[in-house]
Description:
It is built from 3 helices and 14 strands. About 10% of the residues lie in helices and about 55% in strands. It has an 8-stranded antiparallel barrel with strand order 4-5-6-8-9-10-11-14. The two termini are about 80 Å apart. It has 2 domains: about 10-90; about 110-270, Porin (Beta Barrel). The longest helix is centred in the N-terminal third of the chain and has 18 residues, at about 65-85.
Amino acid sequence: MPCPSSIDVNTRLQPLLPRTSQNPTDRHLAILEIIEQPDARKALHLRLLRADASVIGDRQLFLAGDCQAMAEAAAVVIAAWETEDPSALPAPVAESAAAPTPAQASTSSFQLLGGVGAGAGFVGGMALVGNVEAQMGRSDSRWRLRLSVMREWDRRLGLGSGHADWHHTMVSAGLVLHGAAGAWLGSVDLGPTIGWVTVQGVGFKDNLRSNSLEYGVAGGLRGGRRLGRWTLWVEGRANGWLRGQRAMLTNTESQAQMPQTDVSAGAGTTFRFY
């Protein structure tokens, strides 16, 4: 039986193509022409065209056998042409569009730092100053929240025949604006503070002790160098109180005024937990 003028090779072609390729018959046109040769042999003229009529492949096959054999041979040739043609392959997916891995996501999430520092205050006499702090914020932001507890050692005020020892204990909260140049870091912070001033009489018949609540503002300027998760830094800080405090000697007019401002310098270290 002679073969029909067209041979359907689609069902034989699909298993030969890579799974990632699209259906080539949606974009390419295969033209099969059966030619009877004078010597009674059959020839199959096969061409594969793109949508713009450009030729992907053109070949004449001399075959022996029935229409099924011709269809299988044509499918093999077309599959080879489709595989070699770049336009038949799916477009590559840009890796930059892929979703971030959990490790990448964590690098731009919440950060927590803890630190300690020590220094000296200089207004109203010199005294040691120590503090602990925590800073938190997003790693991709230049702003952080700073919480700090600071304790001063006693300073002395002359008062009559004796003196008064006083110190501040304060809790501060502030916004930190920070930046970096390589491993070098810098920051400035400012915020409200609440504290207790403790005054203790010394050298009197009755040495009284009193505590008073204070409100004010605190700020600092810091510079440091990062060493892995650790940062070593130096800083200058200033505190200002909204009202003044005095130490008074009972039943006399003797009194001493405590300063409403303080300036300190210190050094310390901060560790980044995550």
